[in-house]
What does this fold into?
Amino acid sequence: MSRTGEHRGITYVIPNSDDGTWRWVVYPREIKGFGAINVFPRPVYATSDEAVEAAKRAIDAILDGKSN
It folds into this structure.
């Protein structure tokens, strides 16, 4: 099952993975000028909780960088 959440008003998704690893996708549509953030190569995490924490760090970087 995919896991969806929100951090600082920005939506993230931790999608299902058939290989037992977890990845994140961030959708900062609420911030003008940003579409979906895709990172390649896409980091993988051993647990969905690790992927959630990484997604939150990415959101923080987007928002903190946008405010500078």
Notes: The chain has one domain: 3-67. The longest strand covers residues 3-7.
